[in-house]
């Protein structure tokens, strides 16, 4: 990393700080002044500068997305790192802090000269989006009280999170408020942004799949703590029972996010602070019903009235129906076939819900946490909203032709046995608590001469190993390579009853997906839980990056991987909590022919595999030709199940599929690794 690059990265620190006299570039606002060889910022950055500092920046709001595009383009057009540094310096302090960090992160990920650098954790950039204002003040006090011989100041937050345990929903606060889950969500939307001109392979489908998987995982933890699965927010005309009080601050002046009382009713949107036109709840319902009509009619209608069929049985380059629907629901105006007709359902739902407490801005209250990708997952209503969105996709998926025996089987391979091993125990996994320190003083100024740390509690588990034995035929057409797909789901529903295939279908969480070189005869695969294709192995702190500087080798592969794959699911949340008395889960292992799964990648595509299941691969195609969620995205042919209430275990009649009962026990103790 050269000094220009380091200076760019350093500008991720203390976003609320105004540039000092020496750092500031007053020429920026002088009309007609050329900066960095491009058009002058005052004319170019009108949208970006229209969002006041210290206020909410929301990529769910179209005008904010356009502002982000303007700023990202301005940074991306810099012809050298030096010019980028210049532009970033000029803009810092002039535009909204969240917008600034979003655009700077965007450019670090995508600009060829920058993307070998690692991005530090968003937790350190905006600690006030991860810990309540009371903890921030506690940190301030601790810093003030600290003695000269103290090298650092540490303040703990958790494990109670913002819950009181008076409301049932508080039982999963540890999950919703987990720093890794929220930073994953922020990172995912940075990697797959809407309206920023980013064309990613199967973007719409991954929008569906990644969010569906988060819901499956949330439901697993809900069942672990004795809650029912999430109910979709389908009726907008009745109050939402669960309120949310984030206790987080939007800026360094102590401004708080809007909160929602229990039993609030969604209102027509009449605020004027985001440049949005007045907007009625009935418009959301209308968009929803148009999309549902498209699903049932089997086609979408574009701006010119042309029909585009919706089916998942396509040959590339035709897009799968689920991909088109994902784009339509997420409403990227350059990708959605007809955003005027099908609307902006997903994003506007976030906006309307986050304005529920002050829909006409009469109280001058900020939007709620649902308006920001780094905070939305803290709110119970996020899951109800996304269940509603997922329900659209599932409506489509259940009318797709069921998978046939031919599509599901691989007769030359038999999965002989499956087990997980951890701490010398077979098929018994253990969860508990751990802590992780973040340097909050990288993001907020505590006026301290030493690092001010926040110690966050999070769920964790002992690492484990999958032990999978495959028997491959000694003759005949044996695939050279196979894909191993591992899923996990709770075995019992809320009533303690084993679930049918259709009831359990949406609870299967992908645990791993990898390829294996097959040899004839017995193959014994040992695979560590830490290698999972959904997880991101680490969340880097600023200190990590300083202590392990990046090699001066632009494009050093491991760092490029980090930036893109840094959006993976947190490793510490790979397992659901389970119960103290032990909770039964089922592992599902399926082996398929890699020759049918593989995707021809463009030359020079990076071979990243970390977190590819949720985040795709930088500059490459999604690395699995099957529909995302295969084989649980659709029903299997009825004859494959023992009707009328066939179970997933019925599929083990196919040699390439096996299942194993396991138990997850929550110890409520510290897990140290
Ligand atoms: Cu990730 Cu609604 O898409 O938040």
UniProtKB/TrEMBL annotation:
InterPro entries xrefs:
Di-copper_centre_dom_sf, Hemocyanin/hexamerin, Hemocyanin/hexamerin_mid_dom, Hemocyanin_C, Hemocyanin_C_sf, Hemocyanin_N, Hemocyanin_N_sf, Ig_E-set
Could you identify this protein by its name? Prophenoloxidase
Q: Where is the Tyrosinase copper-binding domain?
A: 379-390
Q: What is its main location?
A: secreted
Q: Which UniProt keywords apply?
A: Copper, Disulfide bond, Metal-binding, Secreted
Residue ranges annotated as compositionally biased, kind Basic and acidic residues, are: 541-550
Q: Name one GO cellular component term.
A: extracellular region
- What Gene Ontology terms describe what this protein does at the molecular function level? metal ion binding; oxidoreductase activity
PANTHER family reported for this sequence: LARVAL STORAGE PROTEIN/PHENOLOXIDASE, PHENOLOXIDASE 2-RELATED
User: Which species is listed as the source?
Assistant: Scylla paramamosain (Mud crab)
Disordered: where is this region? 537-556
Q: Where does the record place it?
A: Secreted
Please give the superkingdom of this protein's source: Eukaryota
């Amino acid at each position: 990393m050269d000094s220009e690059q380091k200076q760019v990265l350093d500008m991720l620190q203390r976003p609320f700080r105004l540039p000092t006299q020496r750092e500031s570039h007053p020429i920026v606002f002088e009309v007609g002044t050329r900066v960095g060889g491009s058009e002058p910022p005052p004319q170019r950055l009108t949208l970006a500068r229209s969002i006041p500092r210290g206020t909410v920046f929301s990529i769910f709001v179209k005008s904010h997305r356009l502002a982000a595009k303007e700023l990202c383009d301005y940074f991306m057009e810099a012809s050298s790192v030096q010019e980028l540094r210049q532009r970033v310096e000029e803009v810092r302090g002039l535009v909204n802090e969240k917008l600034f960090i979003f655009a700077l992160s965007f450019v670090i990920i995508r600009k060829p000269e920058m993307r070998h650098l690692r991005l530090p954790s968003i937790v350190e950039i905006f600690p006030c989006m991860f810990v309540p204002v009371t903890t921030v003040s506690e940190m301030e006090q601790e810093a003030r009280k600290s003695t000269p011989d103290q090298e650092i100041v540490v303040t703990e937050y958790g494990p109670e999170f913002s819950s009181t345990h008076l409301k049932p929903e508080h039982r999963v606060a540890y999950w919703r408020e987990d720093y890794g889950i929220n930073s994953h969500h922020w990172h995912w939307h940075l990697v797959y942004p809407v309206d920023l001109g980013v064309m990613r392979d199967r973007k719409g489908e991954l929008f569906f799949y990644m969010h569906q998987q988060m819901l499956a995982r949330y439901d697993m933890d809900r069942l672990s703590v004795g809650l029912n699965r999430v109910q979709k927010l389908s009726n907008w005309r009745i109050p939402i029972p669960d309120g949310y009080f984030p206790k987080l601050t939007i800026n360094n002046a102590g401004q708080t996010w809007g909160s929602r009382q229990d039993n609030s009713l969604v209102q027509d949107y009449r605020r004027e602070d985001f440049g949005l036109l007045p907007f009625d709840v009935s418009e959301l319902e209308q968009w929803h019903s148009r999309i549902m009509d498209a699903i049932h009619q089997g086609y979408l209608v574009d701006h010119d009235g042309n029909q585009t069929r919706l089916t998942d049985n396509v040959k590339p380059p035709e897009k799968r129906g689920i991909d088109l629907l994902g784009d339509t629901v997420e409403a990227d105006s350059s990708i959605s076939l007809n955003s005027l007709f099908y609307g902006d359902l997903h994003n506007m739902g976030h906006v309307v819900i986050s304005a529920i407490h002050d829909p006409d801005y009469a109280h001058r209250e900020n939007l709620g946490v649902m308006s920001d990708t780094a905070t939305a997952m803290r709110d119970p209503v996020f899951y109800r909203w996304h269940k509603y969105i997922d329900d659209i996709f599932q409506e489509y998926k259940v009318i797709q032709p069921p998978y046939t025996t031919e599509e599901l089987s691989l007769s030359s391979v038999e999965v002989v046995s499956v087990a997980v091993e951890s701490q010398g125990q077979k098929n018994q996994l253990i969860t508990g608590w751990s802590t992780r320190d973040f340097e909050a003083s990288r993001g907020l100024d505590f006026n301290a001469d030493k690092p001010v740390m926040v110690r966050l509690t999070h769920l964790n588990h002992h690492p484990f190993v999958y032990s999978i034995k495959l028997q491959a035929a000694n003759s005949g057409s044996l695939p050279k390579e196979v894909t191993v797909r591992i899923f996990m789901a709770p075995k019992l529903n809320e009533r303690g009853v084993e679930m049918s295939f259709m009831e359990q279908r949406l609870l299967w969480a992908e645990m791993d997906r990898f390829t294996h070189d097959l040899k004839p005869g017995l193959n014994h695969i040992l695979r560590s839980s830490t290698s999972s294709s959904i997880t991101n192995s680490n969340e880097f702190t600023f200190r990590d990056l300083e202590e392990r500087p990046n090699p001066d080798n632009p494009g050093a592969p491991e760092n490029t991987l980090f930036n893109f794959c840094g959006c993976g699911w947190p490793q510490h949340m790979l397992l659901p909590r389970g119960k103290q008395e032990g909770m039964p889960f089922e592992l599902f292992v399926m082996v398929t022919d890699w020759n049918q799964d593989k995707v021809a990648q463009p030359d020079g595509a990076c071979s990243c595999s970390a977190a590819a299941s949720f985040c795709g691969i930088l500059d490459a195609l999604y690395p699995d030709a099957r529909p995302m969620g295969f084989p649980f995205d659709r029903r299997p042919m009825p004859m494959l199940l023992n009707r009328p209430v066939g179970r997933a275990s019925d599929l083990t009649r196919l040699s390439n599929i096996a299942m194993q009962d396991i138990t997850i026990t929550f110890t409520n103790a510290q897990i140290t690794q």
